Structures are given as C-alpha cells and as structure tokens.
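Chapter summary example.
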Amino acid sequence: MRTILVVDDEKAIRDSLRMILEYEKYEVESAENGDQALSKLDRLAVDAALLDVKMAGMDGLEVLQKIKHRHPTLPVIMISGHGTIETAVEATKLGAFDFLPKPLDRDKVLVTLRNALREAHLAEEVEKLEESVEGKRKILGASSKIKEVLSIIDRVAPTEVRVLITGENGTGKELVARAIHKQSKRANKPFIEVNCAAIPAELIESELFGHEKGSFTGATNQRIGKFERADGGTLFLDEIGDMSLQAQAKVLRALEEGKIERVGGNKLIPVDVRVLAATNKNLESEIEKTHFRADLYHRLRVIPINVVPLRERREDVPVLVKAFVREICEKMGIPVREISDDTMKRLTNHNWPGNVRELRNTLERLIILGNDAVVGDGSDRLEGQEVGSNSDELLSLSLTFQEFKDRAEAAYIKRQLERNGWNVSKTAEALDIQRSHLYTKMKRYGLAKEGEGEEE
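The structure predicted for these 456 residues follows.
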C-alpha cells in the first residue's frame, strides 16, 4: 500500500484529502505544519506528499526545499488557495511535481497523484538500469595518461572549481564531465548538457538562459533555460569554442554574479550551478583570432584536463575493445564474440582519427556484418580510415536495392557526422543539404552521437 503525506494547516483540508485517498486504498499520514512534516518524513516511508503553500511558520516553498534536500526523489505536489503563476514556476524550479489550486478537484488530485507515483517508480527503474550499465559510462583504460586523468578527477570532483576539458572529438570529454559530477557533492542534482556547436547562434541564448513569452517571434510561451534547469547541479557546456561572442559575454556574467536574466526579461534570477566546459579547439588560438573571450577562458580554465587521443595510448585499445564487444553483444542479445589476435593487433595499431567513438562504431559494424563467433578471420581489413567497412561487405548481404541504398546512405551520413564532430550545421554544409533535411535523415536512420538522448 502506498503512503501519502498530507501537509496543510487547515484540518478540514487534511480530513477531506484523507477521506478521498483512503477510499482509493492509500495509507495517509498528515501534518499541520512544516516541522511536523519533516519529522514524519525522517521517520516514515512515504511515497508522495501533498503540500500546502501558505502555512504558519515555514511556508510550503521553504518546506519543499528542505524535503528535496533530504529526500530528493520524493514526489511533492503543491496545493494552494492563493496560487499565482510566479509561485507555480518557483515551486517547479524547486522540484515540485505539480501545482494544484484550491478548491481541490477530487479527480484532478487522484490523476496527478497517480502520475507522480508512476514517474517516481519509473525513475527508480531507470536508476536501477543505470546501476546495471554503470560500466558502460566508466572511463576505461590502463595507460598512465588515463590514470592521470582519473587522478585529477578524484581530486577536483569534491570541490566546486570549474574545469575545462580539452581533447579531440571522440576522446571521451563528456565521460570526464559526468565522472566529475558523479563524484561531486551535486551528484543527486541535475547534470545538464548543452552542445554549443549543435545550436544555431540565434537560439543559444534562449537555450542557456530561457526566454519570456513574446520576447521574440515564435516565443509563444515562457521557457526555462539550461542554467535554471541545472540549478543546484552541474551544467556541462560541450564544444564551448563554438559559442557566439554575445552568448560568451552572458555566460561570463552568470559565472561572475551567480545570476542570469532570461531573454526579454528584466529580472535577475539567482542560480547555483557548477560549470564544466569542453572543447576540441585551441582556445588560446581562438582568443588571438578574437573568436573567444580571454576573460571567459580564464574563468573556465581553473583546472585543465586534457584527454589524449587514442593513438597516444594504444595500450588502452584492448581494454576498450573487450568492453565494447561485450556491451554490443549484450545489447544485440547474441553470444559475446571473441576478437582474433590478428584483428586485435590491427585495431591497436590503427590511428583512429575518430578516437574511442570511432573504435566503438567500427566494432559494432564488424559484429553486425560478421557471421562467426570470432571477429577476424582475415576478411576484416583497414581501408583508408575504416575497419571492415567497404562495398563488398554490403554487396555480400541479401538486401533489396532500396535496403542497399538506405544502408549506404546511412553509413555515409554517419561517417560525415563523425568527421565533423557530430556538428549538424557543419555536416549539412559539407553535404550541401539543409539542416532540417539532415535532421530528418538522422531520425530515419537512427543516427545519434553515442550517449545522446539519455539525460533529458
């Protein structure tokens, strides 16, 4: 039986909600103020809470903050007879599941509560799943250079310092950022990622800081930006070297003041965010070209971490290969393949311009196209920058002409995306097609950067 905590200073409201909930077979606990509520939550196993906004002593928003600090996964539904849009937005920012106005509608209360409990259950399942696949997000390797990166992460993660992560495309900069967040005091708070290269310059400010309704053409509703969504947690600015100078100025201001202003707004909003940034560019060179602000660079680069390319740590290739093969085979529901000694030697000696990401994609291709329990019987070969990727392999499959065309087009587009660091704008320009057309094809073929789509 699910237990619901009802917190309201009006006895009539508490009794009414108790009657509604007990009729639906919920167990009900009640509290008439914030102190009682917090005390019961510390002692009892509660599945959700209904919390009044206006109460004597601590008001509901203050109680909500304390609940989310002590019990971050508990779904809390706010109720109020004096609700305003501003209060609802503030409650949502503080982590409330929903906001219900008084007088309470029985059906609305029950539907909202069921949705909150369902979402909490799904969150638990996702957490269990993430725990089961935690190894897939670990930084793998036994080389001295990887051990040095892991050592720096261990030292900087518990602090609040900003970190600038540099390295070529595909080296695992995002994994470094996630590892820092995972080991930080903010681990239970949001990790929000922004790929600065994938967002058009005219939209980056709205994406980061949000906007007010009517602030520009198409702004039909208020939007909460990534800074606000990351409040209390970590904001990862990936490919920050591609950010416009105007947006850089606003990010610098946010870092200096701890406050942001939505596009079209006139109010400064406090945010508590740890910023991690990453780039594949030489920012010092970009500063000389006046493409990047020197003051922002020094603000971000309190601790630098450089993730070296795979060709400079070849001893890590066998470790990565074994982990990726196991992961890919488990995902496909097939027995784990073995890698022949000859294939492992070729993989280790290859330069991998796309680094770890290219290595994983290549292994996936080898496993899908191969038919043997052992990957590597002399048929896999390095051609240009590819392993086992050539027209003979496609021609040897039993495909219709349309299937052949689709596979060939998907492989070509994926390769171009990898060469451009999954920057959609640059890839569309290289292919001489519209961005929207490229997005359509990516969706059709299920093309996405490794790990993309899992956070939000």
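To summarize the output: The chain has four domains: 3-131, 144-308, 312-389, 398-456.
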